Amino acid sequence: MLKPPYLIVIGTVAIDELSTPFGVEQKVFGGSASYFSYAASFFTKVGVVAVVGKDFPEEYRQVLEERDIDLSHLEVLPGKTFHWKGKYETDMNSAITLQTDLNVLLDFKPKIHYSKTPEFVFLANIDPDLQLEVLDQVHGSSLKFVACDTMNFWIKNKCDAVKKVLGRVHAVFMNDGEARQLTGEVNLIKAAQYIHHLGPEYVIIKKGEHGALLYSHEGVFIYPAYPLETVFDPTGAGDSFAGGVMGYLAAARKVNLKTMKTAIAYGSIVASFTVEKFGLERLREVKRENFDKRLEVLKKICKI
Length: 304
Ligand code: AMP
What we know:
By secondary structure, the protein is an alpha/beta fold. The protein contains 10 helices and 13 strands. It has helices at residues 32-40, 58-65, 128-137, 152-157, 159-166, 176-183, 188-198, 237-252, 257-274, 288-302; strands at 7-10, 14-20, 23-30, 46-53, 70-77, 82-87, 96-101, 120-123, 145-149, 171-175, 202-206, 212-216, 219-223. Strands 5-4-1-8-9-10-11-12-13 form a 9-stranded mixed sheet, with helices on both faces. A 4-stranded mixed sheet has the order 3-2-6-7. A hairpin with a 2-residue loop joins strand 2 and strand 3 (23-30). Helix 3 runs parallel beside helix 5 (159-166). The chain is globular, with a radius of gyration of 18 Å. Adenosine monophosphate binds at residues 12, 14, 16, 30-32, 35, 84, 95, 100, 125-126, 151, 153, 235-239.
């Protein structure tokens, strides 16, 4: 049987259609698991649990293969790949969904067939019922840390399932709007407290260009975003942020406040590269050293 990578992700592998103030692209390789795994692969070996349709281009698969991402759990089903059409107007922090075609996601039954449970598991943005199906398959002593993400689409359509997932994970990543939508709280600290009570020890609330907030039993911490003059396409920022965080934690093999803080800094740096071009284009150009250089800049900025 197949040896598991340190980190696996279940999420979407998608064909996106994007419109930003800087341009329109009819066909971009996207999806929460694609951005996440590509970002995490700079830090550790990562595997993707996902589904695509027969229309999924071979060159997209090669993009993931170029980072040695384990695709043994990328299923191909008859039908079309998950498709998302979104646009950004003046507020580049929030995407407007124009169309979501679930396509093969409707028939997806994730089955994890590694020889044992991977140590780190990420439930990226996808149907929360599928996240629960994966949670049912990943248990045992080798499992160290499980985190999840979600979005407005699922909070609106499957709120109870989202809450069930939150009751079973160590950490959650959400953006500010989603945290407010889920909890009904306007104040983000109150929203984070509410989510913390639902289960996760670490609640990470992303605030786009304004950075991120971490809430844990040890208190509230805030992190800046890397200051960028040009944000070209914010798609995938949240997923690659989570990929940087989880990739760093899986490589460190331990989670505590100290590793979490560095992980969040790397997460925002990876995301800062993602948004500089369409899709995964920019991340495909960078090397791990580029992240370390930006980390030095962030450290200088944060010195009080
Ligand atoms: P983000 O990091 O939040 O910008 O995520 C962007 C990616 O999420 C896009 O590439 C989309 O394909 C994917 N996506 C959009 N809507 C959904 C959804 N309802 N469930 C899962 N993935 C989605």
